[in-house]
Amino acid sequence: MRVAVVTGATRGIGRAVCDVLARDGFDVRGLDLAGSALQADVTDPASVANALAPLPRIDVLVNNAGVLIEGALATMPLADFDRQVAVNLRGPFVVTQAALPKIPSGGRILNLASELAYLGREGASAYAATKGAILSLTRSWARELAPDIVVNAVAPGPVNTPLLGIEAMTPEERAVEERNPLGRIGQPGEIAEVIAFLASERAGFITGQCFSADGGAAMH
Ligand SMILES: NC(=O)c1ccc[n+]([C@@H]2O[C@H](COP(=O)([O-])OP(=O)(O)OC[C@H]3O[C@@H](n4cnc5c(N)ncnc54)[C@H](O)[C@@H]3O)[C@@H](O)[C@H]2O)c1
Predict the structure, then answer these.
(1) Are 199 and 108 in contact (CB under 8 A)?
(2) According to the CATH classification, is domain 3-213 in 3.40.50.300?
(3) How does pLDDT run across 71-129, given as a tens digit for each residue?
(4) What whole-number distance in Å separates Cα of residue 217 and Cα of residue 157?
């Protein structure tokens, strides 16, 4: 059975990815800070190595764990900048470095970017920059690991997860999130299905790409 590792697996998009990959026949191992997944902090190489140690092979790696901390350029504490760089950029690097010896020829690496990598967002420049960096990592890894391993990314628009927190939004804030051609916020399963396609045999000739699933907000 093919093994899939998903970071940030206990809730939101990561949990949906685990469900869909299990449906598609993968032996799915989730990593997260806590909860029902294997315990691991993606920023900490020792903790990641410990979590991955029992796995003999990793056919699909999904770098999904991420944090969003909003803050204006003028006032954002640098600790908030550093935390987002640590989880959203260093995290995928640490996890992929640890997983690489276990990824066989034909393996897949999938990274979670964001529509904000393309669009930018006032009050979220640090987060958007980490997601722009994910596009760069994806392209560089796709070249470096070819032809054995393919590497792609998915750039979601707003998705109904705890990270987005629609329950706490004002109607005006929600309207901003719904401002895309399809006029709505996405569901975690709609992102997971794109990941499932990219993890499947059907996507073998695709590498270095980023697929937007954002209601048409960023067309490119
Ligand atoms: N929800 C959205 O609107 C949206 C939009 C675009 C991109 N994304 C991206 O999709 C991914 C998943 O987002 P989500 O909305 O499901 O988020 P979420 O906050 O609902 O879930 C993220 C998960 O990652 C885990 N996590 C955080 N830091 C970690 C660490 N250091 N080590 C291990 N696990 C850690 C959390 O515990 C949590 O279970 C993120 O990379 C996010 O940036 C989300």
Answers:
(1) yes
(2) no
(3) 999 999 999 999 999 999 999 999 999 999 999 999 999 999 999 999 999 999 999 99
(4) 7
CB-CB neighbours of 80 under 10 Å: 16
Q: What is the pTM of this model?
A: 0.98
How far apart are the C-alpha atoms of 93 and 89, rounded to whole Å? 7
Q: Is 92 near ligand 1, meaning CB less than 6 Å away?
A: no
Beta strand residue intervals within 8-166, DSSP E: 27-32, 38-39, 60-63, 108-112, 150-156
Strands 38-39 and 150-156: unpaired
Active site residue 118: no
Output the CA 21–ligand 1 centroid distance in Å: 17
All structural domains of the chain with their residue ranges: 3-213
Catalytic residue among 26, 118, 127, 141: 127
